[in-house]
Amino acid sequence: MAAVMQPAVSESLPLLSVNNLEVVYDDVIHVLKGVSLSVAEGTIVALLGANGAGKSTLLRALSGLLDVHDGEVTKGSVTFGGRGIHHLPPTKIASLGMKQVLEGRRIFAELTVEENLKVGGHVAPRQLRTNLERVYGLFPVLAERRKRTAGYLSGGEQQMLAMGRALMSEPRCLLLDEPSLGLAPLIVQQIRDLIVEINAGGTTVLLVEQNATMALSIAEHGYVMENGKIVMDKPAKELLEDSDVREFYLGLGAEGGAKSFREVKHYKRRKRWLS
Ligand code: ATP
């Protein structure tokens, strides 16, 4: 009897795949204009872009939160773990293992640290204790402050709490929206190390950042988004060396020093690669 051909092993497929995605707000505001990207399981992928490029919109589309903002996917698809998810509600997407940490932390300010974490763990009640201990192991400062009202935590601690809350459901993939926003350099360094540790524990990470230096220093691959389109797609190391990225996102001139006003003007003149 002839051997039956097996389909390609699914491990070779990306965990998350976005294909030619278009998103419109209020039926008319066309924000994502054919975005495609992929995230391999176990990796950290960085998504860079200036204000208004469409990064948060993409994350909303991935986690099913567009409805809340009067937005909708009008074209294209998103697959996660081989399954189409672009028309699923956020609770379903979260239960499949994709969890977003929203920009600006969004913790429950009146609840204690532990109550916040328990909210994140309600989908896996049997593992609540184990997951709490795992999160406290990762963020010892949260263990120290477990009874403290979350609204009184520092910005960095609130970011850790938001990440810890997402990790309480043991996601396969974490979507981080600007975790370094508004934090002091030393705290950004701490958040960076924590993302590396979370990833080493097996969680795939899509990291949206304006802090390109931080994101590209830990990502394997990076995408640059402008005006609702992906304009660059390269291994993170190559993006770090790309002259346009160095100039615009890293604020470095040709010699590696801080960029001069003349260089910024020069960049603006040849900004064609972004359109
Ligand atoms: P930022 O870092 O400033 O959040 P971003 O790259 O995440 O920028 P988005 O927040 O996705 O960008 O915004 C992309 C575009 O979509 C912007 O022009 C913004 O004004 C518009 N936009 C975002 N949310 C809505 C909404 N709910 N309704 C209409 N337009 C929106």
In short:
The chain is of the alpha/beta class and 275 residues long. It has 11 helices and 10 strands. Helix 7 links the parallel strand 7 (173-177) and strand 8 (204-209).
Chain-wise SSE layout:
Blueprint: E1 16-25, E2 29-39, E3 44-48, H1 55-63, E4 71-80, E5 83-84, H2 90-96, E6 98-101, H3 113-120, H4 128-138, H5 140-144, H6 155-167, E7 173-177, H7 185-200, E8 204-209, H8 212-218, E9 221-226, E10 229-235, H9 236-241, H10 243-248, H11 261-269
Parallel strand pairs: 3-8, 3-9, 6-7, 7-8
Antiparallel strand pairs: 1-2, 1-4, 4-5, 9-10
Helix pairs in contact: 3-6
Task: Describe the 3D structure.
The protein is α/β, with parallel strands linked by helices. The chain has three domains: 13-97 and 171-241, Rossmann fold (3-Layer(aba) Sandwich), CATH 3.40.50; 106-170, no CATH class; 246-275, no CATH class. The chain is built from eleven helices and ten strands. It has a six-stranded mixed beta sheet, with helices on both faces. Strands 2-1-4-5 form a four-stranded antiparallel beta sheet, covered by helices on one side. A hairpin with a 3-residue loop joins strand 1 (16-25) and strand 2. Helix 3 packs parallel to helix 6. The longest helix is centred in the C-terminal third of the chain and has 16 residues, at 185-200. Mean pLDDT is 87; it is low at 1-10. Bound molecules: adenosine-5'-triphosphate.
